[in-house]
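dude i think i finally got it to work??
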Amino acid sequence: MKFTVQKDHLVKAVQEVMRAVSSRTTIPILTGIKLVVTNEGLTFTGSDSDISIESYLPTVLDDQQLVDVKQTGSIVLNARYFSDIVKKLPSDFVELESDNNHVTTIKAGKTEFSLNGFDSEEYPLLPQIEEHETISISADLLKFMIRQTVFAVSTSETRPILTGVNWKIENGDLTCIATDSHRLALRQAKIDGSSTTSEFKASVVIPGKSLNELSKILDDNDEKVEIVLTEHQALFKTKHLLFFTRLLEGNYPDTSKLIPSESKTELTVMTKEFLQAIDRASLLAREGRNNVVHLETVGNSVVNVSSYSPEIGKVVDEIVCEDIKGEELKISFSAKYVMDALKAIESPEIYIQFTGAMRPFLIRTVNDSRTLQLILPVRTY
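look at this
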């Protein structure tokens, strides 16, 4: 194979597929990136057998020639060396040529590298997915939904199913739910799809790690991402990218029973002010058990956020709320969990519903029922 390509586009495509390449794989060829050159363009593939990413670079894009193909062919190159080399090349155009022994020459300006490759025939094939039903969602909304839920997945392998996010599709709605059994994050959105979308139902669990990688690759724009869900795989498609991930096997717990339907104390507070108060209180809580912060309502407009560590000292922060309704309340919770939830909320004001000192409480955005964060309190007495 032999071709010349614009360096910026080459670097971007290589970095996208690098996200799927693991250095800890037991299959040596998977430490490489597969390049396939045709007269239509270049295809790059990276995989660790859980995630596979394919990035496509057409020869011509918007009347601009990106790739000049002299000879078609394919090769697998060591991902780490190849990505480091292309990033540091001196000129705007890169020429790649490989011989029959899979030795690949990379030239740019007066610089020339020679890299030993592998036979692309040995590279595993990507999953074959039958596209019966596709849904689509804009890239920026998909990134939001991932960001607002994925932080709450479990990091412990004792219950592998909780290391993923449960995606439910019903009545033209996509609901994403993540929980590690101490907290829960939920986000809903309308989706586009084929004419049968309103009847289409699905419930799958996508690994949190896969969603994090997908979120990093997607551009911040309203370009549509097509999503295909099958029994064992999910596929996300954009104009120049295919992102495959395996699904987690097993039944996700029914979380609907965890969400309280009534509340005894409700308060409305500015998100940033509340976040900063908890952040300050956690400075002393970190040394103690479990990073615990206490909250106490005072009258119908003030909340005290405090923490106490016998060895270090005490902090009390007073916040004036927009509104407090219902019973007086004293509750303790993990500062980290509440701060994670607040950072994921895209609203200047939040609405918190408590059902007692030992019951889970809900953080919602004002006037929006599609975002919800649930946190279990900590027993401190």
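The first helix runs from residue 7 to 18.
im so relieved honestly
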